[in-house]
Amino acid sequence: MKKRQNVTIKGTKDGLVLLLDDLCSYDELKRELDLKLSANTRTEDERHLISVKLEAGNRYLTEEQREELKELVRQKKNLVVDTIVSNVLTKEEADRLRAENEVVTVSKIVRSGQVLKVSGDLLLIGDVNPGGTVVAGGNIFVMGALKGIAHAGCFGNNQAVIAASNMRPSQIRIHDSLHPAQDFVPAEDKHEMECAYIDENRQIKIDRLQALIKIRPNLTRLEGGH
To answer: Could you read off the pLDDT of 58-108 as tens digits, one per residue?
Structure first.
């Protein structure tokens, strides 16, 4: 009977992918990984680093185990771990992902000196007064006047958008892009919602809300994927 392989090595244009069996013991996995890497390590040019991706399947790896595997790979001269992928999420990771995808609805006026911050999308039913600040990991929708500061995509989401019934901000940020007040021309005579987003030139652009249908077609998230 053929012995089950605990480690399978695949070469790609980007480096090596190591498929790690998720049924064997961790110690067995480490032993086989050490043996196979020792047999397959290239020694002809140690100056050229080879990127390694570890795929752990349904195995949960602690931080200590991740560091052990990284160190084991690093010992093979010209190999370096780029990423470790596991299908298993910790409770903390699951809670963070849930929070980042949650829409938080708040009914209030954000006054001068106040900061309202959420991990996911923010739906504010009320105004953001001058000196007030709203911050979100996702999108920001203000059903009122936005006259203060709004920062969407604060955790690195450059696809986030900001929309307001009355768009007159003192400052807008999306991820690390800035649209200061002096660059914004308020439309006093307009009565339609406007939105802000990062365009293909990595500049924040202000447009009619209807533009989001084409610019961010994946913005709508309905139950069941419909």
So the answer is: 888 888 998 999 999 888 868 888 888 887 766 777 777 777 778 899 999
Q: CA-CA distance, 145 to 160, in Å (whole number)? A: 19
- Helix/strand/coil percentages in the chain, nearest 5: 20, 35, 40
For 68, 102, 121, the CA distances from 97, given in Å and listed in that order, are: 26, 9, 12
Are 187 and 166 in contact by the 8 Å Cβ rule? The answer is: no
Q: Containing domain of residue 114, as a range? A: 95-221
CA count, 13 A, side-chain hemisphere, 36: 17
Question: Distance between CA 101 and CA 103 in Å, rounded?
Answer: 7
User: How far is Cα of residue 31 from the mean position of the Cα atoms in its chain?
Assistant: 34
Give yes or no: residues 139 and 194 share one domain. yes
Give the burial string for 123-138 (b: 16+ CB within 10 Å, else e): bbeebbbeebbbbbbb
Please answer whether residues 219 and 212 qualify as being in contact, where contact means their C-beta atoms are separated by less than 8 angstroms.
yes
Instruction: Determine, yes or no, domain membership for 1.
Output: no
